[in-house]
Design brief:
39 strands, 20 helices, single chain, alpha+beta, eight-stranded mixed beta sheet, five-stranded antiparallel beta sheet, about 950 residues
């Protein structure tokens, strides 16, 4: 189809009746010829060298146009375009539309840069069954339903005056075609109104009042038109005060891709006015010369502002001004507004919500982001379609709150239906209102019964064409929360089409306070509660007597960072991104802390809860670092004593015990300790083991103390959890998928809800923990998690949860590069060592630090003469590809049955189960660093290095 539309791509879908192009592959020809003259490299410098779409003046403008064409071409992909053809890669006689010059000596955009720019065309579209997110609009979104309906009249003066006083229902105050209306009270006590408007005098404002303002038939103009009013009733037109010709680019004679002006706002700065607007291609920050809101205009940022969609200004209490734009970036401005004084920061609500295609969304909305302050809280407002699909449903106003302007922000909350890209303002009496306007593809709907009406089939609204203002309740609650909600019921109720759940309520009496006590590197096998009388844990046993003990609790991965990330996201490592130790979840990954907060909880973390710097990324309301049990005790007690919040509390407390090094003076006799059958009995082993026992004794004692502290400061309705992040840092424990590495203690008490003194064989995983707490607390468990609630087990409704437990290990720095996967049923475990050609190593055997792994020196010496020691070390360093264990007969997983013919059917069944799960996880089988290979004996064998090895 030969259809030229310069300077950007297009396709004439509207040409031809009855879907003329429906059955054809659609190709855009010459999708962006823009032209760029390179001096001294023209075909003939004396003749006119021409290009399409006007001539860019420099390489930057040329690249900008090319990139814009690619973005528009990418948009056309969602409408059915199969390809775009750029036919001219080189300038030709008299034409300068190529990617390199006529003489082939200057490449206008290098190949590697072109490849980067074109990458957008190879990324998957956010589509699912024809649905799109709010940033990807199908052509159907631009279809206006034609109608003979005429806009109704504005309310009479007395009705508006009465409504302003009562402040309890919406008021239709001004007629005329407008979008994105913005009202502010000026220094002269006039209200000033502006917004997206047609060109003054455009007859379509009357003849086509329900023009949607989008697409080829948009009547959006090139002017900023302004009105003022003393009373929000009578409006005086001040005419156009700014046009596209007043923008920086126009004044510098740069070619503009279009002449629209969208979403203008005017802000009084104390001595002059500021004006901001978009679209991003020629967005401006302009200042008046004096106190009158009119030109001439100054541009303090010149070209330094950048392309900004829906820019907005906010002035903080200390006078610092910020520019917000997009969805949502924020940056502080210099006092003269000429530059940014810090790098932009992206601000998003805590947590995510599922998008229409299943991809989590963590943004405030789609556009129209603004900022207000309520008390000392920063309130970030933004707008989005109720369905999170472009122009489907109602366009709503949402908000989130932070203590600092750059965040972190709390969860996204609902402010009002049909208020999308309206802006809150205060009247002279201090009452809050939000502007609203017609933003639909169909004429306005009646407001009666709208609360229960599903609008998801199209863009729909109850707002008349013109300006409506809706009263807002804006207040700071006694518990410190900010509450914003439209007071008119037609606007204040989320509709049935609302994609996000807003059922969370303030703290209720039946919501328990929750305490989660985490130990670090503690196997289930090392506790008297679980049958090891050599390690007495009386406080564990007291907690178990008050609640339920889980005999088959497992972690997702046997190293700190992956295990904790899996707990806090409810996602296995391959899905959340934290696979190797000391790595963190992918940016934007949903975390479950935000869901606890959405359920009304204050969430605090003391000690080792998340891993390293990721603690702040998870958005805890309070974080208290602590290295020792004494520090934990002091800080938790202080926090609970001084806490004033009325919310229920979810308190995570993480001790470092019994993580190496084991340095506490031990009260255990090394001669009396016991150890697993695959450990070697040497003096150093016994010394280390006794120190390890002491660390467990101390973490057990603190469990008892923590329960007493919690009893003093929290409600009687308290749910208490104890568990550990994985097994111990002993050979065949941590960094391994044997039960000694992945099976952990789990004890949960909740008086009146969990039967005291019970035990369960239900198999549960760490990814199930917070979904369980969410359900018990009355919150909403997100969809698409790997974790699932075992609340039914706690309630005594079932003794089953998972049929199989899957675990993964990838590695830890340069010490341990040994990826492993496993599947475990009640009786059997299959382990897949992905690279049996690698040597299995870790910190302990390589570094041999005192009271951590120094016993390895004696193990290596013993193996020089002792056959059993040789077998243990060989089994430790050299692993077969497959290992199969019958767990009910072989607790310590000593006899590998993988090669036994009678187990072939079982092997195939478990292999298929594990393979299917890995595919479902999109497991990349990551090898995160350079491994130590068995053939490189000098890099791993005990005889090849000393205790001080790096």
């Amino acid at each position: 189809m030969d259809e030229h539309r310069y300077p950007h791509p297009g396709f004439p879908f509207e040409l031809g009746a009855n879907g003329r192009f429906d059955n054809f592959i659609k190709v855009v020809g010459e999708f962006g010829g823009h032209g760029y003259p390179v001096p001294d490299h023209l075909w003939d410098a004396e003749r006119r060298n021409w290009g399409y779409g006007g001539l860019p003046q420099n390489k930057e403008e040329y690249r900008e146009r090319y990139e814009t064409s690619l973005k528009m071409l990418n948009q056309l992909r969602s409408e059915g375009i199969a390809a775009g053809v750029y036919t001219q890669t080189t300038d030709v006689e008299g034409e300068i539309n190529g990617l390199m010059t006529y003489d082939r000596k200057v490449i206008k955009i290098p190949a590697e840069e072109l490849a980067h720019l074109h990458q957008i065309l190879f990324e998957p579209l956010a589509l699912n069954a024809g649905k799109q997110d709010a940033d990807s609009l199908p052509r159907t979104a631009f279809v206006e339903e034609k109608t003979d309906r005429k806009p109704g009249p504005v309310m009479d003066a007395e009705t508006i005056r009465s409504g302003l006083k009562s402040h309890d229902h919406a008021l239709f105050i001004k007629s005329g075609w407008i979008r994105d209306p913005y009202i502010t009270l000026g220094p002269d006590d006039y209200y000033y109104l502006t917004g997206t408007q047609p060109h003054e005098g455009d007859p379509r404002e009357i003849s086509n009042p329900y023009n949607i303002g989008l697409g080829d038939e948009s009547i959006v103009g090139d002017q900023v038109r302004l009105w003022r009013s003393r009373d929000l009733i009578e409006w005086e037109s001040l005419g156009p005060i700014f046009t596209v010709d007043d923008t920086v680019k126009a004044q510098q004679n740069k070619k503009l891709p279009n002449r629209y002006i969208w979403a203008p706002e005017v802000h009084w700065l104390g001595d002059r006015w500021a004006l901001v607007h978009c679209p991003r291609g020629h967005s401006s920050l302009a200042l008046t010369a004096g106190k009158e809101l009119k030109g001439p205009w100054e541009h303090p940022m010149n070209n330094g502002m950048g392309e900004r969609h829906d820019p907005s200004l906010f002035t903080d209490d200390d006078g610092t001004r910020y520019l917000l734009w997009g969805n949502t970036m924020i940056a502080p401005l210099s006092a003269d507004l000429s530059s940014y004084t810090a790098e932009p920061v992206r601000i998003d609500p805590a947590g995510t919500r599922p998008g229409p295609d299943g991809t989590p969304i963590n943004r405030i909305g789609h556009e129209g982001a603004t900022m207000i302050k309520v008390g000392d809280k920063y309130v970030h407002l933004g707008t989005a379609w109720s369905t999170d699909e472009g122009r489907k449903g109602s366009y709503n106003l949402y908000y989130c709150v932070a203590d600092q302007i750059t965040g972190p922000y709390g969860p996204r909350q609902f402010a009002g239906r049909f208020l999308g890209h309206g802006t809150p303002f205060q009247d002279r009496d201090g009452n809050w209102w939000c502007t609203a306007f017609f933003n639909g593809n169909v004429p306005p709907l009646p407001s009666e019964g709208i609360e229960n009406r599903d609008l998801s089939e199209n863009a729909q609204t109850i707002n008349e064409q013109g300006v409506t203002i809706v009263p807002l309740e804006v207040k700071l609650l006694d518990n410190g929360e900010v509450y914003i909600r439209a007071k008119d019921p037609a606007y204040g109720t989320p509709g049935p089409d609302e994609a996000q759940s807003f059922t969370a309520k303030p703290a209720q009496n039946n919501q328990p306070d929750i305490v989660v006590y985490l130990s670090d590197d503690h196997s289930q096998f090392d506790s008297s509660l679980y049958g090891n009388d050599n390690i007495p844990t009386p406080c564990f046993e007291e907690l178990a007597a008050d609640g339920m003990t889980f005999m088959h609790a497992f972690v997702a991965s046997p190293s700190c960072a992956p295990s904790r990330a899996a707990m806090l996201t409810g996602l296995m490592p391959a899905r959340n991104g934290a696979e190797a130790n000391h790595t963190f979840p992918h940016t934007g990954t949903h975390n479950l802390i935000s869901d606890l907060q959405a359920a009304g909880y204050e969430v605090a973390a003391f000690g080792k809860v998340a891993h390293g710097r990721s603690a702040r990324q998870f958005g805890f309301d309070h974080i208290g670092p602590a290295q020792t049990i004494e520090q934990l005790k002091t800080r938790v007690t202080s926090f609970l004593s001084e806490r004033e919040s009325k919310k229920p509390l979810c308190l995570f407390v993480g001790t470092n015990n019994p993580h190496v090094a084991w340095t506490s003076p031990t009260t255990f006799d090394p001669a009396e300790v016991e150890f697993p059958p695959h450990h070697l009995d040497t003096p150093a082993t016994r010394e280390h083991r006794a120190a390890y026992y002491q660390e467990i004794r101390e973490l057990d004692a603190f469990l008892g103390e923590l329960r007493e502290i919690a009893d003093q400061h929290l409600s009687e309705n308290m749910l208490f959890v104890h568990t550990s992040d994985h097994g111990s840092q002993w050979p065949f424990g941590k960094w391994n998928l044997y039960d000694y590495g992945i099976r952990v203690p789990l004890i949960i008490s909740w008086q009146g809800h969990v039967t005291a003194g019970t035990r369960t064989d239900a198999m549960v995983s760490w990814i199930d923990l917070i979904p369980t707490l969410l359900e018990l607390a009355g919150g909403t468990v997100p969809e698409n998690l790997d974790g699932r609630s075992f609340a039914g087990v706690l309630r005594g409704e079932t003794n089953e949860h998972r049929e199989a437990i899957f675990t993964t290990h990838t590695g830890d720095g340069t010490w341990n590069i040994y990826p492993i996967r496993s599947v475990r049923t009640k009786d059997w475990k299959l382990i897949h060592n992905l690279h049996p050609e690698f040597a299995h190593t870790n910190h302990s055997d390589l570094d041999r630090k005192p009271m951590a792994g120094a016993y390895w020196t004696e193990w290596a010496q013993l193996a020089e003469t002792d056959h059993h020691a040789q077998e243990v070390l060989q089994r430790y360093f050299e692993r077969p590809e497959w290992e199969l264990y019958h767990l009910t007969q072989d607790k310590w997983e000593q006899t590998n049955l993988a090669d036994q013919p009678e187990q072939s059917a079982r092997m195939e069944e478990l292999k298929a189960m594990l393979a299917d799960w890995m595919i479902s996880q999109k497991d990349s089988l990551l090898v995160h660093s350079e491994p130590r290979r068995l053939k490189d004996r000098e890099r791993w064998h005990p005889s090849s290095y000393k205790q001080t090895a790096p």
